[in-house]
Write a structure and sequence with these properties.
Length: 205
């Protein structure tokens, strides 16, 4: 008798698929009426389900300083030249900022920009091998990026550019500034690229 029960139990645990509907104890909590993200709403006059923030409301962790949150000057005329001192302080100093930046850079940036910032990461090489040469990011060691304000690099990480997606949601503000700081370390560690020479003028007869 025990052998039969054991055989029946084993047969019932073979993981066979079933066409039966799943069991829900309280079905109306599963099927309750609700709006999905980006779905059109007939309740609001603008027909948007996702509601904008109330004017003047600031998120608990939001930086109100434009220099910190956006990398821009208060009057919006340009970018801050250097990483804000308050960011350096709250991370624990320059060395801690650069160490954090290295760790974050190796996770989020190196796949495309490579470990040295030359723009030849594994993703880039794979894209080039499949014919997507336009995917290649610029090297950090060119003169233009060596002289770019820290705030501009921060804004690029935040908002993305060309094929590079925005990282505002994935990387916190302090970590974005830390990456900027580490990019400067990479630039100092690498020789400067030679300046591009203008083509020689053609000899006209």
């Amino acid at each position: 008798m025990g052998a039969i029960a054991l055989a029946g139990l084993s047969a019932g645990c073979r993981g066979q698929s079933s066409k039966e509907s799943p069991v829900f104890g309280i079905r109306n909590m599963y099927d309750q009426p609700k709006y999905q993200v980006q779905e059109e709403s007939n309740f609001f006059s603008d027909h948007r389900t996702m509601r904008p923030l109330v004017e003047g409301v600031i998120a608990h962790d939001e930086d109100v300083d434009l220099g910190v949150s956006q990398g821009r000057l208060d009057d919006q005329t340009g970018y801050v030249l250097e990483t804000p001192k308050e960011v350096v302080a709250r991370v624990g100093g320059v060395e801690a900022l650069q160490a954090r930046g290295k760790a974050r850079y190796n996770i989020y940036c190196a796949p495309c920009h490579d470990m040295a910032g030359g723009g030849q990461g594994m993703v880039t090489k794979h894209a080039q091998a499949t014919g997507a040469a336009a995917f290649a990011p610029p090297t950090f060691h060119q003169d233009r990026l060596r002289h770019a304000p820290d705030g501009q690099i921060f804004a690029t990480i935040t908002n993305g550019k060309n094929n590079m997606p925005p990282y505002a949601m994935q990387i916190p503000v302090n970590d974005r500034w830390a990456i900027v700081s580490y990019v400067r370390v990479l630039q100092l560690a690498q020789p400067k690229l030679p300046e591009e020479k203008a083509p020689a003028p053609e000899n006209k007869k």
